[in-house]
What does this fold into?
Amino acid sequence: MANYAFFISERYLKNNTPFGDNVDIKDIYPHAKTAEDIYIQEALGTALYERLIDSLTASPQNTTANETILLKIIRSAMVWWTCYDALPFVWIKIRNIGLVKQSGENLETVSVQEMEKQRSILKEKATFYMNRLKDYLCENSNLFSEYDEGCWNCGDLSADNTRRNSTDMFFDKNVPSNEYEKFYKKYIR
It folds into this structure.
């Protein structure tokens, strides 16, 4: 894949998260990139991830209606994972003298415990939207052929399509075992 595109814009990020307009986007975008690589690509799998990037970077942009719906769901998860990953680095900076906390006039820095509480709230939101993304992909896997595990190369990530709900399973002895294997690969693995 030669192209790269962010799934979220600066405006989208600032309009949909606690990051205010005064936060320097240069401090945030490295975390948006890693959030996309770590969380979003894992959920989509490399093949579908690359398909979406190619659709976004095509000239003119050629996202399908199904991809547009999927991208909206991705963006909801993406902004919260970006906040979660960026928060410690917005709070503490790495400078040539070491780690420093920035503070200005009339500002009070928060404690590590308060920051961790905020991160747990951000993670809850990110996980909620990530589960919506995974559910949507599982329910609509027929719309995205790349989401099928069978089309990935060994070096690519496989989609993490584990479901958040657990259930007891009953296997009918009259169903051929290869049908269970298909079910297992699609929903459990």
